[in-house]
Amino acid sequence: MSGHFNDSGFVPLNIAVLTLSDSRTEETDKSGLILKERALEAGHRVVEKAIVPDDVYQMRAIVSRWIADDDVHIIISTGGTGITGRDSTPEALQPLFDKSIEGFGELFRTISLEEIGASAIQSRVISGLANGTLIFCLPGSTGACRTGWDKILKEQLDHRTRPCNFAQMFPRLLES
């Protein structure tokens, strides 16, 4: 990934997928599977995939480990972004961010408005940067994961997308 605007071809990124659920297993985790399959189809590497309960400290533990791992460029979580009592992904992960990326949630809700109407307001989708790792927190539904990947992340994680994208920023994310 040398050069800020290097057009030498596709550059695969290392992605970790995290499903946040008290009830899903590897066999029933359709949303995590969608994210994994779409990342692989796009040419990226899925370096880890995990399922953890809707528990603030378990979420923070695994995401903190991935943030500290130089081999993980992107973390995409699914689940826990709603408003029920067990939904705690934003509260768990936002404190880990060095910088928030507010536009991700805004764009996701705008796109979702077209798909699910005013129900989009219930989504507390967030994104941020921590130790040079980009973190995207999507809802737990398969439709929301498709929307997040297909309409935002696929292009933004491809450094060939113009006029700009997240992938181009990697050489500069930790500059001082």
From TrEMBL:
<comment type="function">
    <text>May be involved in the biosynthesis of molybdopterin.</text>
</comment>
<feature type="domain" description="MoaB/Mog">
    <location>
        <begin position="16"/>
        <end position="160"/>
    </location>
</feature>
<dbReference type="GO" id="GO:0006777">
    <property type="term" value="P:Mo-molybdopterin cofactor biosynthetic process"/>
</dbReference>
<protein>
    <recommendedName>
        <fullName>Molybdenum cofactor biosynthesis protein B</fullName>
    </recommendedName>
</protein>
<dbReference type="GO" id="GO:0005829">
    <property type="term" value="C:cytosol"/>
</dbReference>
<keyword id="KW-0501">Molybdenum cofactor biosynthesis</keyword>
<dbReference type="InterPro" id="IPR013484">
    <property type="entry name" value="MoaB_proteobac"/>
</dbReference>
<dbReference type="Pfam" id="PF00994">
    <property type="entry name" value="MoCF_biosynth"/>
</dbReference>
<comment type="pathway">
    <text>Cofactor biosynthesis; molybdopterin biosynthesis.</text>
</comment>
<comment type="similarity">
    <text>Belongs to the MoaB/Mog family.</text>
</comment>
<dbReference type="InterPro" id="IPR036425">
    <property type="entry name" value="MoaB/Mog-like_dom_sf"/>
</dbReference>
<dbReference type="InterPro" id="IPR012245">
    <property type="entry name" value="MoaB"/>
</dbReference>
<dbReference type="InterPro" id="IPR001453">
    <property type="entry name" value="MoaB/Mog_dom"/>
</dbReference>
